[in-house]
Specification:
The structure is a homodimer. By secondary structure, chain A is α+β, with helices and mostly antiparallel strands. Chain A has 2 domains: about 15-275, 2-methylcitrate dehydratase PrpD (Orthogonal Bundle), CATH 1.10.4100.10; about 280-400, 2-methylcitrate dehydratase PrpD (60s Ribosomal Protein L30, Chain: A), CATH 3.30.1330.120. Chain A is about 50% helix and about 10% strand. Chain A contains 21 helices and 8 strands. The first copy, chain A, has helices at about 15-25, 35-50, 60-70, 85-100, 115-130, 135-155, 155-160, 165-180, 185-195, 210-230, 245-250, 260, 285-300, 315-320, 330, 335-345, 355-360, 360-365, 410-425, 430-440, 450-455, and strands spanning about 75, 85, 105, 275, 305-310, 370-375, 385-390, 395-400. In chain A, strands 6-5-7-8 form a 4-stranded mixed beta sheet. In chain A, strand 1 (about 75) and strand 2 form a beta hairpin. The first copy, chain A, is globular.
Chain lengths: ~450, ~450
């Protein structure tokens, strides 16, 4: 027997679907500060590099093979590759690629990876529509604002339930951004958000499998298709987000509407975006950072280390508590592996998360010496690390904010190095340098052709 | 701060993802009774008619226009139409069409409309793979078993939360059926279910808009693509359904695993399928049935009626309580409108749910005289109706089970009449008769060509 008990009936929720739709299409181009526009460029360029890096990975290859079964039209490019597919599946595949190394951006307030769902859709549709770089950045800022504000309103309850919030809010950002590029009116944009609201994507249970990077790609595709459907008059609930049975009340007990309504169009979530220096789950970063700092300060060799004790917030173990990862992908969700490679190699890039490294004797030996202890007096952005050495020393470091955080942002040089590290093995050094230059200044480009040429392989 | 409180951690759930995957690909062809096979044919033929009927409706036209923006390959046919599109979008569009009139089938135990997500995927992929009619029916039975068993395990809590259970379980049935057609092994089929588990579709908030029929179509497409991705080695959690953060625990507090594990492969949910005699929400059917019976027994004319009082379970008003529907689509969710047309016309087919009829003076006048009263002592499958006539008579009928229910199934002749009523205006009488004959005996066809030829328009 169906009853109504589990639905929290906030009948008086503000009309956020309509509000976000109006905002998405009416907010003026570059209607924000220079700092925000700069961060949008960092977001975009970092995302391009993260999509090129894994473009030959088996995850992308498998997804592309499935898409090819549809004999797709060659409408839009795949970053790092030579093929073109239809715009919806180009959004899917670029989105998958950009999250495959778990090396993309993070909106720390919600743990949303904001670029993936939005940039993937904007680039594919934008290439097809022949938009300017300015329009691309505008749509990116707007789309990310929509995803992250919805995320702010429902985090953490929604995430706690088991949803991978990147995919389950990302389709809204993608829909908003695509509606803007398609120049839909507010009413149709509201429908686009509504259609997308019926298609949230992503379970945290999938972490450690290829379906995790599917989530931002799937969200990009869903949002793009929702906008196309709305363009042609497809309808949805006008209150698809806020109604008592709208998306937000259905999938979160927390719905703080003020996170959407307050100062919309005045403050910018993209300004809070951060970029990963390490190719793994963001909550491990303070631990890796601390291990690398101790390694450098004390010239530690793996053989010097007797025991490593990492005190972290419970969320860290909840997300990245894999004690004995067997594959590169699984090791991205292991604080044990990550601290071990930080101590052994002094870095934790994609090369430190391969199947080979995961199963190397040296890594296995040090991993076994890493203990993680839950201490909820420590913030989830921090880490407290003690190392006992074989010669009896007791080393200690407390990392309040890891490198790559809002408080300790990566420099332009560091971001560029990360971009080239990922893209040069795929495209060669010269194209890679060029792609960085174009992507990091995309708003000055009258179209996207230079970007596409430098960031893909010739057919 | 993220905590774990809202996740019900049933760590010991049985391995239902694996179990369903093995079942989906290993169960023998036609491994069920004649009665089950007969019901599968009724399910399929009814679905074909329901997809042909609305094939020129603005809902289908809008969705097709969006799909055409992708320049899709002509891989699979659209029922009732002349176009072909790629298999994923053919599944989407046939699924949308089949639910547009809300006239399709219902698994009453869960209110799932089981054919839409599964048949749409099976027909599109099957046409492309050139399968036999037998294979089509096998995949349909298997896919519906998967969707409905998952539905049984989580209904009603999942539905109460606001999910449109047809779309939020249908992608699993579609994935299972497509995996079977693609002859995936159990391990890859398990991955297909896992990939699909990250993509549940559908909010009840969308009822009364075009996004409601999107749900079965979207689920069909998601399942088909998930199977194609799994075919090419894409991975997902092996416990995507049952893990503490798997789909079922994430979106329902009720998870009765025995509904999946008990007698799997021995009992068949498709045997419980029902077909709608009325083109509206199933919970209104007892009310309409009763109104039509009273009309016929007492030769009632609209002017004879002073007041109509319909006592129903609270769910009926929750789902179909629209007092003043303004459009045909909205009127399908109005017990008031539905009872009024039953009394005026003696039927409630698609023609009684047009914008014109909804706003006709006669309907408005009688609708205003219909009162619906909640009485939870009445089963949701029943209705208790009192009519006061202008000449002082007090008429009464109690309908325990409406026509079209498991207890009072539609006859073959009634099903055929429903099929032809819907399809003849689209395809002409001759093709429509032929399409019924082929669809209702599809397992005897060595391929799907006769079906496609009779159920579509020539290019």
């Amino acid at each position: 027997m169906a009853t109504n008990t589990s639905v929290k009936a906030d009948q008086d929720a503000p009309a956020v679907t309509e509000m976000l739709a109006r905002f998405a299409v009416n907010h003026p181009s570059r209607g924000w500060s220079d700092e925000v526009d700069k961060e949008a460029h960092r977001t975009f360029a970092n995302w391009v590099g993260c999509a090129i890096g894994p473009s030959t990975h088996e995850t992308v290859v498998a997804a592309l093979a499935a898409v090819k079964e549809l004999s797709p039209a060659g409408q839009a490019s795949l970053l790092g590759r030579s093929e073109k597919v239809d715009i919806a599946n180009a959004a899917l595949l670029n989105g998958i690629s950009s999250h495959t190394f778990d090396f993309d951006d993070t909106h720390l307030k919600t743990i949303i990876h904001p670029a993936g769902p939005v940039a993937s859709a904007v680039l594919s549709l934008g290439e097809h529509l022949d938009i300017s770089g300015r329009d691309l950045i505008d749509a990116l800022v707007i789309g990310i604002e929509v995803s992250c504000r919805v995320g702010n309103a429902i985090y953490p309850d929604h995430y706690d339930r088991g949803w991978h919030i990147t995919g389950s809010t990302g389709m809204l950002g993608s829909a908003a951004a695509c509606a803007r590029l398609l120049k839909l009116d507010p009413a149709r944009t509201q429908m686009a958000l509504g259609i997308a609201a019926s298609q949230p994507i992503g379970l945290r249970e999938q972490f450690g499998t290829m379906t995790k990077p599917f989530h931002p790609g799937g969200a990009a595709k869903v949002g793009l298709m929702s906008a196309l459907m709305a363009k042609h008059g497809y309808t949805a609930s006008k209150r698809a987000l806020e109604a008592p049975r709208g998306l937000m009340q259905v999938f979160s007990n927390k719905t703080d509407w003020s996170e959407i309504t307050d100062r919309l169009g005045e403050t910018w979530e993209i300004a809070l975006n951060t970029y990963k220096p390490f190719a793994c789950g963001i909550v491990i970063h303070p631990g890796i950072d601390g291990c690398i700092q101790l390694r450098e300060q004390h010239k530690l060799k793996p053989g010097d280390i007797k025991k490593v004790t990492v005190k972290v917030h419970s969320l860290v173990l909840e997300l990245t508590g894999k004690k004995t990862p067997a594959t590169g992908l699984e090791s991205k969700f292991s604080v044990y592996h990550s601290c071990a490679v930080g101590l052994i190699y002094g870095r934790a890039g994609e090369h430190e998360y391969t199947d080979e490294v995961v199963n190397s004797a040296q890594v296995l030996a040090l991993r076994a010496k890493v203990e993680a202890i839950v201490d909820n007096s420590i913030d989830e952005a921090s880490s407290d690390i003690h190392i006992q050495t074989t010669d009896g020393r007791a080393l200690h470091i407390f990392v309040e904010h890891a490198i790559g955080s809002v408080q300790r942002p990566m420099s332009e040089a560091q971001l560029k190095a990360k971009f080239v590290d990922q893209s040069a093995p795929v495209l060669g050094e010269e194209k890679s340098q060029k792609a960085w230059t174009v992507a990091s200044g995309i708003a000055s480009c009258s179209d996207l052709k230079q970007l596409i040429t430098s960031a893909t392989k010739a057919p």
